[in-house]
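Because discrete structure vocabularies remain unfamiliar, we turn briefly to a single example record, giving the amino acid sequence and backbone structure tokens:
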Amino acid sequence: MRKGFTLIELLLSIAILGILVVTAAFLIKPGQTMAKKRDAQRISDLSRLQIAIESFALDHKATPGDMDTYHSDNGTDAADGTGWIHGSNMSDMPKYIGSLPMDPINQGEFVYRYQRDPGCWACGYEIDAKLETDTQKMANDGGDDSNRYEVGSELNLLPAPTLSPSP
């Protein structure tokens, strides 16, 4: 009677395990799963920021920030008027949102953008983000840019982003 496995049995077992691992890796698609997770975070972040801006506007009869277009890669997450959305009227913004959300990638086209209506303090605003996987959500959000997910009360304020050519 023999004890243990033969070399052929061991090699065959390792080959079968390898095939199973490779198949599982292709089925799970970890890159796409992570992109979907980042998109879900972006949608949640924009919703939280939208609620904070609308609550602030109701109390102050003005949307937060000065008249600029703001990008999340240009500043910190401070909500007190010194972060990536800044302005003299934002000193009590932290009571509406503890910190400003930042895009999970936060570089290139993957940044959050905010623009208030430059024509008046109490008018509309727009926040947008580039999603990695959900092109339908970007195309059907009611905004004027089918390549970005847009929320707010005036979805035509932010221009299409321009990126510098790669060196």
In short: The CA atoms of residues 76 and 83 lie 5 Å apart. The chain is about 35% helix and 10% strand. The longest strand covers residues 125-129. The two ends are 69 Å apart (CA to CA).
